[in-house]
Amino acid sequence: MPTNPVLVVHGGAWAIPDDMVEAHLNGVRNAAAAGWGSLERGGSALDAVEEAIVVMEDDETFDAGRGSFLNRDGKVQLDAFIMDGATLRGGGVGCVERLRNPVRAARKILSESPHVYFVAEGAERFAAEYGIALCRNEELVIPREIERLREYQAQESKSGNDLFAPQILNDMLSHDTVGAVALDRQGNIAASTSTGGTLNKAPGRLGDSSLIGCGCYADNLSAAASTTGWGEPIMKLVLAKWAADRVESGSLPEWVAKEAMNYLKQRLDGHGGIILLDAQGRFGIAHNTPRMAWALQTMKKQEAGITAKGST
Ligand code: GLY
Q1: How confident is the model at residue 307 (pLDDT cuts 50, 70, 90)?
Q2: Three-state SS for 90?
Q3: Which of 24, 191, 279, 304 could pair with 224 as two cysteines, CB 3.0-4.6 Å apart?
Q4: Which residues form the catalytic set?
Q5: pTM higher than 0.85 for the full model?
């Protein structure tokens, strides 16, 4: 029996400033429209999450694709993952510097390769072999991010290289990673997450987003999940799989999403957000950051929000 499709996207969980709220709302709405359009045309959940992610990678508002945070060397270095809940096939890229849409390469890995991951030049070579155009890294760098990195590095040297000085963390670091989860008419779920990682990261640093079970996971028997936030605590807790396992054990995604954020905070003082969806179309959206951008589309409703902490 055909299932009613559902799509949920997020555009990052952090202290989104008032003057960036509109851009985030537009960005997640556009992403949801693209993913939903794909589902309406009969596309799979995988197609839907890929199309939603591409829209946010192309939108400079977000820390994904062009306009991402710069690493310590002033370069954009991107990670992405996509996973099919029907087959458990996954595709991921890490530390790529010449792909406008890393999720496109991740999807090619999922569909064309016996492997799950390719990183750096190997990932770019794989993408090129499958017809994905490479770009120059400079094409992914925007003036806003050059200035943000300059300010961060100036602060860093003022605070005696104390990278964890609270004022720097609070004022300058954000987590704009993007993600999508979908349920299609065949009853299959999928998830994808894409990111430029953290500001001023060391070259070669890989975040949680592209790590299976950490920033992204999908299994028809449990749930599809995408996380956002400071990657190191999320990966230590393998948070996306942690959440999916609880759904498989019978808990509702709405409750599990909130519990995942409590767990992240209590165990490692971590901050972030999660979207979670099961194969029955039940979903959860939660974050423990001041704000999170998200959008939701079902047969009955279309919603988008920049929620404040505790309101989802
Ligand atoms: N969650 C994105 C990152 O830490 O890389």
Answers
A1: confident
A2: strand
A3: 191
A4: 177
A5: yes
Of 140, 139, 225, give the one whose Cα is nearest residue 179: 225
CB of 198 sitting under 6 A from ligand 1: yes
pLDDT tens, residue by residue, 63-88: 999 999 999 999 999 999 999 999 99
Ligand 1 centroid distance, CA of 72 (Å)? 15
Q: How many CA atoms lie within 13 A of 291 on its CB side?
A: 16
- pLDDT tops 90 at residue 224: yes
229 CA from centroid of ligand 1 (Å): 6
Angle at alpha carbon of residue 228, lines to 303 and 273, rounded to 5°:
60
Determine how many CB atoms are found less than 10 A away from the CB of residue 48. Answer: 31
CA–centroid distance, residue 76 to ligand 1 (Å): 13
What stretches of 235-301 adopt beta strand conformation (E)? 272-277, 283-287, 291-297
The dihedral through the CA atoms of 15, 307, 12, 37 has a sign that is: negative
